[in-house]
Amino acid sequence: MEDLARKSVVAVEEHPAGAGHNWPRNDGVELDLSWVLDQRVNLSAAERRVATLPGRRTVKKDAQAAWLLKAVTCIDLTTLNGDDTTERVKRLCAKARQPVRQDILDALGMGDRGITTGAVCVYHRFVSTAVEALKGSGIPVAAVSTGFPAGLVPHDVKLKEIEASVADGAREIDIVITREHVLTGNWQALYEEMRDFRAACGDAHVKAILATGDLKTLRNVARASLVCMMAGADFIKTSTGKEGVNATLLVTLVMLRMIRAYEERTGIKVGYKPAGGISAAKDVLNYQFLMKEELGREWLEPDLFRIGASSLLADIERQLEHHVSGAYSALNRHPIG
Predict the structure, then answer these.
(1) Which residues share a beta bridge with 307?
(2) Does the domain made of 2-9+32-333 have the CATH classification 3.50.50.60?
(3) In the chain, is it the N or the C terminus that has fewer CB atoms within a 10 Å radius of its CB?
(4) Which residues are identified as catalytic?
(5) How confident is residue 65, by pLDDT bands cut at 50, 70 and 90?
């Protein structure tokens, strides 16, 4: 199994997790309403595209293990619960440093590759705790902000929350947009809001959470994606994880094509983050396949691809243990924190 380390999709030594942020920031462009309003989505064609994906693309054995290890390096290991505590966050950070058991990594020939998750994502209250717990690891802390998850607090409060998280050491800020701007077609307001968020983040990267389950139509998803990128989002993200419908392959396809269109017109690469409801290893593989097919190999790295998840990591570790041992263990033997 040692030649697993040479699988092209892993390449951990070339793109170590936590190194991140190797692409230039998205400074944004002027709002082009004609471009925004031109966006349409062929629903039946999009549905056919994602429906055929699992049947056309599959990986087995060593190749599957390699793809799953790559997914680990792209996880934003997350805890966003009302009962979060300092100790829970510390345990989560310990798991981010060592996301897969050492004996499993050794059996895969990957024990010396320094595999970590892409980031740890927490509420503002726990940013400083996570920064301290991750010191020396290179793993960035991402903070959810702007009145997460509803985003309905006053605008000046949103900006102060971003600034406070950056001051505490957050290197990434996951903001939530005001859904009303999308639902009413007020693209100028969405653009200006996102520009303010981008400015408040300073050197920290900003991920724009669209809450796609609240946006009603794929056309709204496409237009909101484009406006947020024009306003300077470094990543666009599907969901808070708190909506009735979170990340789906259908929404992902639409957002990835907006990222591709934005890069073709501006030359700027923007990252993508699905979040909410991705809990099984087999599901994350489909997201990876779609990323590679639509955007290319570069979008399989943590610089441009993150997965907002918690329980997903436990299932990936379980699948990797099965790969090396031939037996499935109980899921509760693979805690995330």
Answers:
(1) 75
(2) no
(3) N
(4) 174, 237, 273
(5) very high
Overall residue count recorded for the chain in this entry = 337
Q: Which pair of tokens denotes residue 235?
A: 């990543």
Query: pLDDT tens-digit profile of 200-259?
Result: 999 999 999 999 999 999 999 999 999 999 999 999 999 999 999 999 999 999 999 999
The pTM of this model reads 0.93
- Yes or no: say if 166 and 127 are a contact pair by the CB < 8 Å rule: no
Question: Residues near 135 by Cβ (< 8 Å), separated by ≥ 6?
Answer: none
Give 135-163 pLDDT, tens digit per residue.
Answer: 999 999 999 999 999 999 999 999 999 99
**Tokens at residue 106, please?**
């050794």
Partners of 77 in beta bridges:
120, 309
Strand ranges in the chain using DSSP code E only, listed in sequence order: 75-78, 119-122, 141-144, 172-176, 205-209, 235-237, 271-273, 307-309
Q: Which of 246, 175, 254 is nearest to 212 (CA)?
A: 246
Residue with tokens 């990594």: 105
Query: Rounded mean pLDDT of 287-297?
Result: 96
| In the chain, where the domains are located | 2-9+32-333
